[in-house]
Amino acid sequence: MDDPLDSLRVPGRVADPDEGVTLDEVGLAARNHGLPLELLRDDVTPPGLHYVLTHYDIPAVDPDGWRLTVDGAVDRPLDLDLASLAAMPRHTVHVTMECAGNGRAALHPRPLSQPWLTGAVGTADWTGVPLADLLADVGVADDAVDVVFTGLDHGIERGEEQDYQRGLPVSEALAGDVLVAYEMNGGPLPVQHGYPVRVVVPGWYGMGNVKWLTRISVATERFDGFQNRAYRLRQEASEEGEPVTRIEPRALLEPPGFPDFFTRARVVRPGTVGLRGRAWSGWAPVERVEVSTDDGATWQDAEVGPDRGRWAWRSFTATWQATPGEHRLRARAHDASGRVQPVDAAWNRGGFTNNADQGVRVVVADA
Ligand SMILES: Nc1nc2c(c(=O)[nH]1)N[C@H]1C(S)=C(S)[C@@H](COP(=O)(O)O)O[C@H]1N2
Ligand SMILES: [Mo]
Predict the structure, then answer these.
(1) Disulfide: which of 52, 121, 261, 318 matches 302 by Cβ 3.0-4.6 Å?
(2) Which ligand is nearest to the CA of 213?
């Protein structure tokens, strides 16, 4: 008999040249919401407005029965409950998190998956136990290569049934700011963000920040699970590809004026308009942000605001003399590694790391 799961064993697909957004994409977009861009006004994103990306179902977790196993290539495996985790020294990190698929929906042709525009980002204060402390307690073997995180959520993806799992190189796992987090913005993790415990890997795209964490396993071989194979930059499905790791620089403008309900185009009054936004990069500190009010024909340097920590977005401001008519505003970030946002993003099959600036349509008109 044929395996009934064969109907789900279909490879990832790229949209036909004129193919509109599919109902499957709409379904994913309704489950996984982005940051309402006006919330770029806040340093810390309020609970419920941080973007969400969940591949499968949000699991129901009983906090009393929850355990975290730390095992694999370690000297002293651990089995922790919430109280013993909370009793360890705690640390808070201010982190801008972004989905690797942010910007995917603007690619041509469009890879079919969660169709993000630009809002797959948010900034939170995450509190928990430094992963380096936990790993020091268990004693990591000298020949360890990867640290593998397992979530309590379970699903099937391109025919492969799995618990959500990601491997992180040991050198990155030992970096000071990786957290086993149990608080977001001073309260327990909201259920959609991984209650009761998740991983936070500052500076990396979202996929490694495993939610509903139940196990940390140290491996002496490179972890080759689905999520590590899926998040790679490929032109062809058969290619090996480069792994997706750190966040590319991006600047986003807080949309000025007021919105048109359907198109989100902005309406602004003529005269002096203050522009504001946020910029971040997981590779190196943001050094410079440029703003264009003529769709990229000319650029002016924005004023970059205070540094609120290595892993968090920075504010920027600029001034615009708005004249009646239609305008397209743009912003682009430069970081200290020399990376700058491209005009056109390099295409890849997964639709990852598209940090091309998508612009803001503004109509300047009197009341
Ligand atoms: N267990 C688990 N962890 C997960 C995911 C998931 O589906 N399951 N999604 C990942 C992806 S792709 C992203 S972008 C971030 C999103 O985190 P957030 O929903 O808290 O913003 O979680 C990551 N961690
Ligand atoms: Mo993601």
Answers:
(1) 318
(2) 1
CA 42 to ligand 2 center in whole angstroms:
22
Q: 221 CA distance to ligand 1 centroid (A)?
A: 24
User: Could you tell me which residues come within 8 angstroms of residue 337 by beta carbon, excluding any fewer than 6 positions away?
Assistant: 281, 283, 284
Both tokens of residue 53?
Answer: 């990306």
Tell whether 82 and 217 lie within a shared domain.
Answer: yes
User: Same domain for 97 and 209?
Assistant: yes
**pLDDT number for residue 1:** 67
Output the DSSP codes for 204-253.
B-GGGS-SSEEEEEEESS----HHHHHSEE-SSTTS--EEP-BPPPEEEE
Q: How far away, in angstroms, is 170 Cα from ligand 2 center?
A: 21
Which residue minimizes the CA distance to atom 21 of ligand 1? 52
Q: What is the pLDDT of residues 153-175, one digit of tens each?
A: 999 999 999 999 999 999 999 98
Q: Ligand 1 centroid to 130 CA: how many Å?
A: 19
Cis peptide before 196 (omega within 30 of 0): yes
DSSP string, 159-191: TEEEEEEEEEEHHHHTSTT-EEEEEETTEEPPG
Segment holding 130, helix H or strand E: strand 121-130
Which atom of ligand 1 is found nearest the CA of 98? 14
* Rounded Cα gap, residues 160 and 133, in angstroms: 34
CATH number at residue 66: 3.90.420.10
Domain extent, residue 168, equals 4-13+51-101+120-230
Co-location of 158 and 219 in the same domain: yes
Pocket lining for ligand 1, CB < 6 angstroms? 50-55, 97, 99, 151, 153, 164, 193, 206-207, 209-212
- The pTM of the whole model exceeds 0.85: yes
Residue with tokens 């008519």: 325
Q: Which two tokens stand for residue 343?
A: 């005009």
Ligand 1 pocket mutation, candidates 104, 123, 199, 209, criterion most atoms within 8 A of CB? 209
Q: What is the chain's mean pLDDT, rounded?
A: 97
Ligand nearest to the Cα of 100, by number: 2
- How many angstroms separate the alpha carbon of residue 165 from the centre of ligand 2? 13
What total number of domains does the chain contain? 2
